[in-house]
Amino acid sequence: xxxVHDELNKILMVEQLPAMPHSALSVLQLDNDVAxxxxxxxxxxxxxxxxxxxxxxxxxxxxxxxxxxxxxxVKQGIALVGIRxxxxxxxxxxxxxxxxxxxxxxxxVTMLWQDSLRxxxxxxxxxxxxxxxxxxxxxxxxxxxxxxxxxxxKRMTNEYGSxxxxxxxxxxxxxxxxxxxxxxxxxxxxxxxxxxxxxxxxPLISLIENHLKIExxxxxxxxxxxxxxxxxxxxxxxVVESDWNERADFDxxxxxxxxxxxxxxxNIFDKVDREFEQYAMIIQxxxxxxxxxxxxxx
Length: 298
Hints:
mainly alpha, Hypothetical protein af1432, two-stranded antiparallel sheet
């Protein structure tokens, strides 16, 4: 594994690779537990970055929250919505700013972010519904599970572009299998290296690194609730698919993990679709043409 790590470092740690903004790093490295964090330690790095502060206030005053009175300062907003939600918004904005707007053949980074947001919301709502684990950590892990793909495409345009074209021509083939066959590593390995280089929290890096290992976690939901739902989210349909190519695998593992909760999936899909519409307006991405709920009846 060390040789894989070294190879990926050579690919990803190039002079042109942007660094995570210091303000965002300062926020992300704070504890999620409000009892362990002085709220001013969260407020200072946000307010010190004028652009970030403006984005956070815009987020807090959006229709997503629906506060009757305007939020006039960051500290007030954090007190109302909580540390974790603000941290995840800062994480989204920071990573999104670092990801190149790559497009190659059928691959478009906009579609990647649509997929990522749906997966993140699915993971969050599933844990909230079951009252297990840390829903916001699962949200972040699912959101960033594929963050290495556009960077790999930028650094290895021909080689990685060829792998993505193979995937487009054989939609029932797993991207990770093509990556491993071609390079000896996959985008989960690359995501972990990126997370380390950007000094993301260790638990978050672990979620990214292991998001393809649903078989290992399907029988250990109680012990690893965040990792299980992040790994399950990786099997959701992509917005580029006309059919749900991994439906059989998803259904098998969902039943294995949640047994008699057949109605849970329909409810979660409906929540994700409704939440996506509001969240998408804030971060300015279009909603998918096909909803998750529409798959429930197929």
